[in-house]
User: Which sequence fits this backbone?
């Protein structure tokens, strides 16, 4: 085994965005591994969704089944210890004085990317794929293109390997993310995302909406729901 450009590591949470990114990677790379982080999320539902999404992707296309490699789960409980946010504590989701939602976990994506690169180094993978987006997002500064670009440079310099962080969703909105899933895997992939992925901040999976499961009210459900509507209207 050696480093080569035909392999990729996808940051995979079990949500809509990272599932779409995983399909995007399976379409382009010969070997695709996944990494997920357990950091004391308020609701572990998204962690439960991961293996189901992986199985469903394998059944969707034989090519994808052949390319999908190892799944790695990294325990980052320490992140829950140092951050006091609505994603890791049982407090209300609201806008803070700094204009950021209380779901913002400071440094989360920076830490995720650093651990991903450390794993990628060991697995001899240069291409790291993240579902971050600057177009339709909650204002998280660590989702911005400039942050990711700086991070890519820091990781490449710090580990002396030419890491590339790919962000296929960076410049598209949620409606276009639904469309991307359709283009990659047809209605079967769209259905898989509706049924199996989880995005809701509150971990609500009681009610099945046209766009999937969720409370329908939190910022994350809002984005998913509105994107679905715009996507449907444009069809
Ligand atoms: Zn929700």
Assistant:
């Amino acid at each position: 085994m050696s480093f080569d450009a035909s392999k990729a590591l996808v940051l995979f949470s079990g949500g809509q965005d990272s599932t779409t990114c995983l399909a995007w990677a399976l379409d382009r790379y010969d070997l695709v591994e996944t990494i997920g982080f357990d950091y004391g999320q308020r609701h572990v539902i998204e962690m439960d969704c991961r293996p189901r999404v992986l199985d469903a992707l394998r059944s969707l296309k034989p090519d994808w089944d052949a390319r999908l490699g190892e799944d790695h789960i990294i325990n980052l409980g320490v992140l829950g210890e140092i951050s006091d946010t609505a994603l890791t504590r049982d407090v209300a989701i609201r806008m803070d004085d700094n204009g950021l939602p209380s779901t913002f976990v400071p440094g989360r994506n920076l830490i995720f990317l650093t651990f991903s690169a450390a794993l990628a180094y060991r697995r001899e993978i240069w291409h790291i794929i993240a579902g971050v987006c600057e177009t339709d997002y909650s204002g998280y500064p660590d989702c911005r293109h400039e942050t990711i670009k700086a991070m890519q440079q820091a990781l490449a310099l710090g580990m002396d390997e030419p890491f590339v962080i790919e962000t296929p969703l960076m410049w598209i909105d949620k409606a276009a993310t639904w469309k991307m899933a359709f283009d990659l895997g047809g209605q079967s992939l769209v259905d898989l995302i509706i049924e199996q992925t989880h995005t809701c901040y509150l971990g609500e999976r009681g009610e099945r909406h046209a766009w999937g499961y969720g409370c329908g009210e939190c910022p994350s459900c809002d984005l998913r729901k509105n994107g679905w509507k715009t996507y449907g209207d444009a069809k």
